[in-house]
Design brief:
Layout lengths: L2 H4 L6 E2 L2 H10 L18 E2 H19 L9 H25 L5 H10 L35 E3 L4 E3 L4 E3 L4 E3 L4 H31 L1 H12 L6 H36 L3 H14 L1 E3 L7 H19 L6 E3 L28
Helix pairs in contact: 4-6, 6-7, 6-8
The structure holds zinc ion (2 copies).
Membrane topology: Multi-pass membrane protein
Enzyme class: transferase
InterPro entries: Palmitoyltrfase_DHHC, PFA4/ZDH16/20/ERF2-like
């Protein structure tokens, strides 16, 4: 692969990363396979990635320029600075998660140490995996990878322990940045409810102590602006509503990752298991590499799924490496789910 090919220029901005990668992969020009996105801050930038940064800045301005001002002294400033540190940590973790190149080290080493070049002639056929389902050789990266590796179409690279391609980070989440991603979501799950609570508290001041409310708003925006207390009140109401929606979303995401972490699977693995359960009534759980505790938890999950499906009078079997532990029928001859041998990104 020549240097010119490897530096193929991508567009600066696209509305949707998924649509962009779809167009790229449907393109029959083989030289198109040479491009690879290093991290979230490399082109193309997506609308949702830019929207995140604008929203974050606006939210920080609201939180520290308006909402914390309603807190009573002397604790108000203390809480203000604690929240500022948490917000700084959160955006730093976000940037780190987005900046890490999540490319599989197996692929990177093969390229850098052994000069393995990409297969520029590879053509993605609908329904066929980029990584071969049995040999685990990536058709584009030209390297045999591990079973938990996935070739992300939006980044056009193999990612070890692929979890998902995050539109907010504009990057893949995998082995090398999953911890930073979880740290970012965790702090978001802390900040957003606090932010919403502070907005609600400020609204309550309007009704409980209107004189103090008006004095604070006047101090912030100037006494000459008529109708400003009511305008700020409407903004605070909006902040409560939006903050509540985002809080629920972030906490649900965090809870989901706690669940799959306990089960020892990735987001992609979870999606595949759900799809398989719906289609075939079976769960080919990838339990061979999991610890005993995780196996037990997976069995509990499988039983929950059984009872759910059982209510609909559907037959269900579970493929497990420990047949006696499962109450359902066993079919170990089927290959277990592998998050790495699939062809499509979940997004
Ligand atoms: Zn690959
Ligand atoms: Zn990706």
């Amino acid at each position: 692969m020549s240097q010119a090919q490897s530096q193929q220029r991508l567009p600066l901005f696209v509305c949707s990363g998924a649509a962009h990668s779809q167009a790229r992969f449907e393109h029959k020009d083989a030289s198109d396979r040479s491009w690879r996105r290093l991290h979230g801050f490399t082109r193309p930038f997506t609308a949702i990635f830019i929207a995140f940064w604008i929203s974050w800045v606006l939210l920080a301005l609201s939180l520290f320029g308006l909402m914390t001002r309603f807190l009573p002294d002397p604790f108000g400033w203390f809480i203000h600075w604690i929240l500022a540190l948490v917000a700084l940590a959160q955006i730093s973790f976000f940037a780190i998660a987005a900046l890490i190149d999540t490319e599989s080290h197996t692929v990177r080493d093969a390229r850098e140490l052994h000069g393995v070049a990409r297969d520029l002639k590879f053509i993605k056929r609908t329904g066929h995996a980029i990584i071969h389902p049995t040999t685990f050789k990536c058709g584009i990266c030209n390297v045999v990878v591990s079973r938990d590796t996935f070739h992300c179409r939006q980044c056009n690279k193999c990612v070890d322990d692929f979890d998902h391609h995050c539109a907010w980070l504009n990057a893949c989440i995998g082995k090398h940045n999953y911890g930073w991603f979880i740290a970012t979501v965790s702090l978001g799950g802390l900040l957003m409810p606090v932010c919403t609570g502070l907005a609600a508290y400020a609204v309550s001041i309007f009704f409980r102590d209107n004189t103090r409310y008006t004095a604070i708003v006047s101090q912030l925006v100037g006494v000459s602006l008529r109708g400003m207390p009511e305008t700020v009140l409407a903004y605070l109401f909006l902040q409560c509503l939006v903050g509540l929606i985002i809080s629920v979303g972030v906490l649900a995401l965090l809870w989901f990752h706690v669940k799959i972490s306990i089960l020892g699977i990735t987001t992609l693995g979870f999606i595949k298991a759900e799809e398989q359960l719906k289609k075939t009534g079976k769960i080919d759980a990838s339990l061979h590499s999991l610890s005993a505790t995780r196996k037990v938890l997976s069995i509990i999950k499988a039983r929950t799924a059984l009872s759910r499906v059982g209510k609909n009078n559907e037959s269900v079997s579970i493929n497990m490496s420990t047949p006696s532990a499962a109450s359902a029928s066993v079919a170990t001859q089927n290959p277990p789910i592998s998050v790495g041998n699939t062809s499509e990104c979940p997004r």
